[in-house]
Amino acid sequence: MNAGSRPDFDPRDPLGIDDELSTEQLAIRDSVRALCRDRVQPYVGEWFENGELPAARELARELGGLGVLGMHLDGYGCAGMSAVDYGVACEELEACDSGLRSLVSVQGSLAMFALWRWGSEEQKQHWLPSMAAGEAIGCFGLTEPDHGSDPASMRTSARRDGTDWILNGRKMWITNGTIADVAVVWASTDEGIRGFVVPTDTPGFAAPEMRHKLSLRASVTSELVLDDVRLPRDAVLPEVTGLRGPLSCLNEARYGIVWGANGAAHSCLRAALDYSTSREQFGKPLAGHQLTQSKLADMAVRVHNGRLLALHLGRRKDEGRLLPQQVSFGKLDNVRGALEVARTSRTVLGANGISLEYPVMRHMTNLESVLTYEGTSEMHALTIGAAMTGVQAFRD
């Protein structure tokens, strides 16, 4: 290629990564971006300030109509798209707000994936088509008040009573819980840890919404309360026993976070670039000062390295070669990197960086939760360390 035919440098895609995406993937990105632009972005600052997601059910139906709920699953009304397709959607959803991507991740990668991978045919037929359409909302009950990173020590229990199961316990920090129609709840039994499909109108089940959050405020976060919840024998997920079940679901959700967190970072970079080129200080645009340009360059390197990492992992997933430790690598690095970008972007915007008129502080506080959920940064570091050394350090 001669110099005259080189493409122009695009400050929003400096490495030309869009060239690595298919026409279909670019169309998915544009469709999700348009939904976010029209249906969420005008209101999300107010939702965040008020600590609510009033349009959750309506948004779920629109997302279902777009085909993004369980989009990487096959059959049962799911779109059957690739891992990279799903990643591109997650990137755009979280560029809008982490709470929106969380709604989609919990629905598709946790609740729906648990049913799709470990459920009976009857369970799949009953729940998955309506969940894919956004007509039914799911949640995933694993984390407990006293057991986050150590799910093997969960206290929620299920015991047999004749042919039925009786569930008792508490789950905490459950996205979608209050608005869910079905909960996939993991409980300790005499047979080991089992998963249960719990319709939320079952007597003894309650899901009070958790308030007073300073992060993920435009998201429904709940406690699950199970007091002698009686379920029929066919409520148990039949195809798995032990932590392999919930951990396989978490791995799916973590993969989406690799893309999503980078979307939040990209949104912060765009905000800093737009602001610095329009704001004047000392007689010229803020972007004309050396320190600002250095910050923009550092943020761009971090964001687009993160995009390359996500794309690489997505292609490995589509090839069936993605390891859980590699997902931990991506989640650890891209979330930490996104926080760095958000904090640097805030300094570029100065005092305006804390205003909800701009997305930066909202992303920054949301990412503090993303750093912790689906495995804390410490747990992912230990996962990588154990894989590198062959020595487990979780219980030392």
UniProtKB/TrEMBL annotation:
Gene3D superfamilies assigned to the protein according to its UniProt record, in alphabetical order: Acyl-CoA dehydrogenase/oxidase, N-terminal domain, Butyryl-CoA Dehydrogenase, subunit A, domain 2, Butyryl-CoA Dehydrogenase, subunit A, domain 3
Keywords from the named record: FAD, Flavoprotein, Oxidoreductase, Transit peptide
Cofactor(s) for this UniProt protein: FAD
Biological-process GO terms, alphabetical: fatty acid beta-oxidation using acyl-CoA dehydrogenase; fatty-acyl-CoA biosynthetic process
Pfam families in the record: Acyl-CoA_dh_1, Acyl-CoA_dh_M, Acyl-CoA_dh_N
Stored SUPFAM superfamilies: Acyl-CoA dehydrogenase C-terminal domain-like (SSF47203), Acyl-CoA dehydrogenase NM domain-like (SSF56645)
Gene Ontology terms, MF aspect: fatty-acyl-CoA binding; flavin adenine dinucleotide binding; glutaryl-CoA dehydrogenase activity
Lineage: superkingdom: Bacteria
Protein name: Glutaryl-CoA dehydrogenase
Species in which this protein is naturally found: Actinopolyspora righensis
